[in-house]
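REQUEST FORM: STRUCTURE PREDICTION
Request ID: SP-0412
Submitted by: Lab K.M.
Chain count: 1
Length (residues): 172
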Amino acid sequence: MSFINQVEAIIQHNEQLDKSDRLDLNQLLKKLVVEGECTFKNVVPHQTKPVSPLQYGRNVIFQSELYEVVVISMPALIETPIHDHGESDCCAYVVSGLVENRCFSLSESAKPLLRATQYYHSGEYFYESSNQIHSMKNPTGKSFTSLHLYSPPIKNNTIYKTVMNHKSQYLK
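STATUS: Completed
RESULT:
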């Protein structure tokens, strides 16, 4: 069974359970990683190249009413725009490389203020709640690949306008 078929089967099984019996987002992603054989070899065929305006690859490999699964491929020294996930929670797994996750809050004038920076290596998981504002950065000279599980699928998210430095400008 292909990686995508395994992802579909695991999620569809979880969706068929009574709400009280469903796995939470963290448990479901861990099940996808282990039972879905989420290895670099199995995920790399689902990486995509950056498509403007994004500077990184973002490929939705599964979507239902409850869940969305995305493969993110981040080239060296690239950062996502500062954003939130709307009403969606997110759990992510680092398939390969190093992810710098930068967490923000909004100032009184609604400008993002950096509050924390966390680093996640290959094989590690991280969680972003629906109210979290963040960006992901690749601080290394090699690309990273990550698998993201959102619930519900992302909609009504916000990308925050800001100039981070002379190399990067993020626009809404």
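NOTES: The chain is about 15% helix and 35% strand.
Reviewed by: T.R.
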